[in-house]
DNA sequence: TAGTTGATCGTCT
DNA sequence: GACGATCAACTAA
C-alpha cells in the first residue's frame, strides 16, 4: 500500500474541491506506537466569511485562530460540553475556511479504536459521526493546530472517488445557511452518518 | 421507529 | 447568561 502524504498544495485548493477530493483518502493517526487508519467517507465544508454557519464567519477569535492558518492544519473544537470535532483547514493563511471530517471507515487499528470508544470492534458506532471518530482516533484539544504534514496525524493519497459516487446534501445540525449543500459523502457507504 | 431529553462547558454577547 | 457544526438513552406508540 503506497503511503504518500498529501502535499501542502492539496489543502490550498478551493474548499469545496478539497472537501470532495478528501473523500476516499486515508486518514492516518499515530497513537501509542500504533497506526490507526480510516477511509474518509463523509465531510462538510465551512467557508468562513461567506458562511453564517461557520465558526470563522465573524472573523478571527482565540477559539478559531487555527482556521485562519495555512491549509493543512487540524482545527479541533470542543462542543456541547462533551464532544470534539476535527476539521481540515484549507486555503492560504488568513482565510478562515475548513472541512469538517464527519465519518471514516475503519481500515487499520480497529481494536484500538474499539478500546477508545468502548465498543465492539464490529460496531458501526466506532467512527460514523464526527465526535465518535474523534474519540476513536484519540483526537482532543491537544491535537488542535496539528500540522497534517507532520507525523502524528496525516492524510495519504488514494484514488479519487468518481463524481458519480459522491452524494451531497444539506449540512447536519445547522440552522443558518441551510440552502448550501456542502455536505459530501460516499454513496452507499455503511459508515456515513444518519 | 420517531421524537424527546439529559449531559456538560468553552466561547461569545 | 445563553447557546451550540452532538450523541446516546429513553419514552411512546
Textual characterization of the structure:
With 194 residues, the protein is an alpha+beta fold. The protein has four helices and eight strands, in the order ααβββββααβββ. It has helices spanning 8-12, 15-22, 110-117, 130-136, and strands at residues 26-31, 34-47, 74-79, 83-89, 97-108, 153-156, 166-169, 183-186. The termini are far apart. The model has no long low-confidence stretch (mean pLDDT 91). It binds a DNA duplex (13 and 13 nucleotides) through strand 3, strand 4 and helix 4.
Based on the model shown, name its key terms.
single chain; 194 residues; alpha+beta; 8-stranded antiparallel sheet; 4 helices; DNA-binding
Task: Characterize this entry briefly.
This protein is α+β, with helices and mostly antiparallel strands and 194 residues long. 14% of the residues lie in helices and 29% in strands.
Mean pLDDT across all residues, rounded? 91
Unreliable sequence segments: none
- Helical/strand content category: alpha+beta
**How many strands, which pairing sense, and closed or not: the largest β-sheet?**
8 strands, antiparallel
**CATH class value:** Alpha Beta
